Amino acid sequence: xxxxxxxxxxxxxxxxxxxxxxxxxxxxxxxxxAGQTVIPPATTATAPAELPGLHNVVAYGADLYSGGAxxxxxxxxxxxxLGIKTVVSVDGAMPDVDYAKSRGLRYIHLPIxxxxxxxxxxxxxxxxxxxxxxxxxxxCHHGKHRSASALGTGAxxxxxxxxxxxxxxxxxxxxxxxxxxxxxxxxxxxxxxAAELESDLREFVSRATVTGxxxxxxxxxxxxxxxxxxxxxxxxxxxxxxDLVAQNESQQLHALFKDLVDDPESQKLPAxxxxxxxxxxxxxxxxxxxxxxxxxxxxxxxxxxxxxxxxTCHADYRNR
Length: 320
Prior knowledge:
Order of helices and strands: HEEEEEHEHEHEHHHHHHHHH
Mean pLDDT: 87
Strand order of the largest sheet: 3-4-5-8-6-7
Number of domains: 2
Helix content: 40-55%
Number of helices: 13
Number of strands: 8
Shape: globular
Oligomer: single chain
Distance between the termini: 40 Å
């Protein structure tokens, strides 16, 4: 296969290249979604952009974007209409590859966790940036932490950004200091020679096999977002989300926590984690019961309790 070759820019030329290409990139990517003109953020934007079905979108360079997972057909339509050619998911959830393909989008699925980007993954992300058709959109669930780190480390490893430039873009994405391994992964990056960046794109799959724990956490993220939407609509079916029913989501959250008891990866974690998991199961069961008896004040309190418990557990295990 013929790889797309380019001259890796030096540190001194990176800023100039970004400035020259920014206007052209924005012009190229301007598209229309449902009659609305959509303009992607500039590489100099100091805040993320909110686009139709796409949250927390940040430009890391000409034709390189990080953001949240596309929200159904609307998000994938927006990517297609903006001219995106390659979509890279670093999240554990399964992407909607079939609909993406119908819109001319090539999906690559290379999940990571919050405990850093391995050297192997950094090289893979760099190879994707080096060989894949552009523009490229890289996403995790919310588009703040993992996708920002993946794109930042990949761009530095491919010689497209300096560490300082990637750090600045990750701050715009909102990457939290509570995930120190993501920042450490970036600072460990070094550009690779062109010979190591060349790769056959067929090596990268559109749906990766993920472990039960990773998949469960990805599903819990989705249910949490759905419950947040329902809480804002006072626990009734939202007008713009007729598929969301409070008791279905609360039941699903309880089931996801219960399933972790039998997950082999979850079972290997220490007793302290197991105690936190049992509390999460108990709190989620109480939340589900409150939703079902329509005690929404209690449901709101319990939802906050479950969220606080997850945050504590993440600080102890996921973020390190």
